[in-house]
Specification:
The protein is α+β, with helices and mostly antiparallel strands and 300 residues long. It contains ten helices and twelve strands. It binds ligand MTE.
Length: 300
């Protein structure tokens, strides 16, 4: 990668450099397993516009645990997230089951404060902890014929009450083009606010692609397959007219049933005003080049 992505959202809101410096030191401490509680406080002080822990962990979409926003926080505790391994296969040099602790021992955990925009037209700002997906894919060695990356969520009916209902074709699957997957903005999240990511948010390992609608950010991943053909995705299979493969945040392309021009920021209270949705969720500088020459209405 030509550049290391810089966290512009948080930088813009830095008001007190000493808090920022302090947080950097805390991040280093966190890498060695210390000061987790300290980080949470410092990150909150610095990035004034991040949503609260409560917003982020009590209003969720994780249909394997039910379709109401409060279901995942109520029911996802039954998911056993340790031990965990991720099968990486397809067009890679070193296919196999990678134990999560082995993956983590080779990764540097960073904080990334990202806008998160759901296709349902609500949004949050989330301080994720995680690592770049490209670093994980490099462990397995991506072969030159690979063009897409397919992801799969764990499927355990005994631990996931929602999969009794055929809301989606289980397991939940998602996909990215390889260049999207390798973009430095694309991360695998393992934490929020310096704490382990809660089950309802996709523990122990979930994808975050901040310029795409939230449903692309697949949770509790157990399999990653490199392929040369565009993989099927759950929401596209369920309703291809409403949910495309790309699903880039785009205020100019309406969902067939509602406009995507504005969004409701969570945590603003009942009467909070809607705000304009940004093209590619505000990450145009970083990712617009991926779609040069493509008609984003056709490839929605
Ligand atoms: N991943 C799985 N496995 N199952 C789901 O139902 N919902 C998606 C996405 N990932 C979902 C999923 C949708 S619609 C959104 S908006 C985000 O997760 C919500 O992430 P959050 O609960 O951490 O805010």
């Amino acid at each position: 990668m030509a550049y290391r992505w810089k966290n512009t959202l948080s930088d813009r809101h830095v008001t007190d450099e000493s808090i920022y410096m302090n947080r950097r030191q805390l991040m280093t401490a966190a890498a060695s397993g210390l000061a987790m509680a300290g980080i949470a406080g410092a990150a909150r002080a610095e990035a004034l516009e991040t949503n609260s822990w409560e917003d982020i962990t009590s209003y969720n979409n994780y249909y394997e645990f039910g379709t109401s926003k409060s279901d995942p926080a109520k029911y996802a505790h039954t998911l056993v997230t340790s031990p965990w391994s991720v099968q990486i296969d397809g067009l890679v040099d070193r296919p196999g089951a990678y134990a999560l602790e082995d993956i983590l021992s080779k990764m540097t955990i960073e904080e990334r404060i990202y806008r998160f925009r759901c296709v349902e037209a609500w949004s949050m700002v989330v301080p994720w902890n995680g690592f770049e997906l490209s670093d994980m894919l490099e462990l397995a060695g991506v072969q030159s014929g690979a063009k897409y990356v397919a992801f799969e969520t764990v499927l355990r009916p005994d631990e996931m009450p929602g999969v009794r209902y055929p809301v989606l074709d289980w397991p939940y699957v998602e996909g990215l083009r390889l260049d999207e997957a390798m973009n430095p903005l694309t991360i695998m999240a393992t934490g929020i606010y310096g704490k382990d990511i809660p089950n309802q948010n996709g523990a122990p390992l979930r994808l975050v692609v901040p310029w795409k609608y939230g449903f692309k950010s697949i949770k509790s991943i157990v399999r990653i397959t490199l392929t040369d053909t565009q993989p099927p995705t759950s929401w596209n299979k369920s309703n291809g007219r409403e949910y495309g493969f790309y699903s880039n945040v785009n205020p100019e392309v309406s969902h067939p049933r509602w406009s995507q021009a504005t969004e409701r920021p969570l945590g603003g209270g009942l009467f909070a005003s809607r705000q304009p949705t940004l093209m590619l969720n505000g990450y145009q500088d970083e990712v617009a080049s991926l779609y040069e020459g493509m008609d984003l209405r056709e490839h929605f």
